[in-house]
Amino acid sequence: MPRCPKCKLQAKQIRYEGVPIYSCGSCGGHWMSGARLDVILDRRELEMPEAVQQKMMDLADASNSTEKLWCLTCGTEMIKESFKYWDEIQIDRCPKCGGIWLDRGELEKCQIFWEYAKDHPEEWEGRELIERKALLNAQWTSRKRDLEERAERSKIAARSIHGYGGGLGVLGFLWRRGGG
Asked: How far apart are CA 94 and CA 72, in angstroms?
């Protein structure tokens, strides 16, 4: 059984959307071949609500490894590269055997980006690579901003439902100003 390139603990084989891959129970990373990643991306068994999408993107952003990693199967130093055309997703790939390491949340982030691209094919047809990258980056920025705004509106709504801030008079005013 292979060992996690980050934690050095044994990775366990799991089934992710029906595809066997290795997962580290400690750091939450995933190991698979490029072909298995393609199979996962082509499936759409799980629908992720927007709140889950935002959480997965935040996890992926926070856990992106910067240290050198070594291939689980052949021991070769892995290289960092962009996933498809998205610079926002940096995956670790073995140049020798093609194995892929995805940090915690990155597999889900790949799915979110890929499903968006599949749902909007009209945005990709007939465009040059640079145009597609610019469009994808703009879409990502817009989508992330929308998710953050929805999350903030949900927090505000929850506060008003639970009595935080709204009808608390001076205490509510101080709380909103950060004084309480």
From this structure: 9
